[in-house]
Amino acid sequence: MPRHCDDHAIVLAGYGFDEKGPYLSLNEVEDDEQRRYHVQGKLFSLRCHPQRLCVGRFDLETGAKTPCPLRVELLSDAKDDLCPACQEATGFNPSFYYADFVSPQQRAYNLTPHVVYLAYFALGYVKVGITSAARGVRRLLEQGARAGRIVGRFDDAYQARELEAALCAQEGIAETMRASKKLDLLANVRYDAKEAVAALDDEAVRLARVEVVGAAGFDGRDLPQDLSRFYFGGPSPACADLQIPDGPADVCAGRCVGMVGGVLVLEQQGTNYLVSLKGWESHRIDLLEDELACTYDFAPQQMSLL
Questions:
Q1: Is residue 247's pLDDT more than 90?
Q2: Residue 259 forms beta bridges with which residues?
Q3: Which residues contact 281 (CB under 8 A, 6 or more apart)?
Q4: Helix/strand/coil for 92
Q5: Whether the predicted pLDDT of 190 surpasses 70
Q6: Closest of 52, 56, 3, 2 to residue 25, by C-alpha
Q7: Could you read off the pLDDT of 78-133 as tens digits, one per residue?
């Protein structure tokens, strides 16, 4: 059985979505390279270890990601996933508008085209955000939005931020949403694609009537879209078919049905289980292909290690 943990350390550096579907970003520490492990349809197990290492740096101009050249080990309670050297090399701060210092890399990045989007998670749960126009829908996917809509296109991040600020001041539009809340909504709230699209249409009509929002460049011409196909290759499973397993938080296993944001959907014995990888990033992991390192018990949802 193929294993990816025996010879050298692997670090979970993140996750993403491309034309092949959802993937995990894995840093091969000794080889100083990052690779994508596409998860959909594969049977595998992940085991998370306490050791943490810097996840590496991101080039804001090219979009290239590389492992930490210094292989810096992080403290277990470190807030950031990057060492100081990789933080400086990346130079990115998503809250640049509050920062006392903006790096040269970010200043150049901020002057590229940006978009403002509405991300839908469930009825009554919509958040606003901005991202580089070059990233397209990927930011919505990384956040785990069930549906999304572009509501503004701008020449730079500063103009985009003006609309974002105007929108998050409106009732029912959040600026942030906790990962735990997203997981709860995914597991317990029914998702209907037509309902989601209709809700974003309604929000666009409501927000367009707000003077300060319109003045900031709100544009409702882009159509909303259901994002299920990016996560599952087709329609989303019903929430009644999605379970959060009890048991140890450092191991997961199953055949991957899909991934929503950083939440794996793993099937065992006809039941789909949700496993959030949010707390696993920067940790050393074992990746065992074609193996079940644990089994889930649907009722009463207890998990036993093999």
A1: no
A2: 264
A3: 12, 13, 14, 55, 81, 262
A4: coil
A5: yes
A6: 56
A7: 999 999 999 999 999 888 888 889 999 999 999 999 999 999 999 999 999 999 99
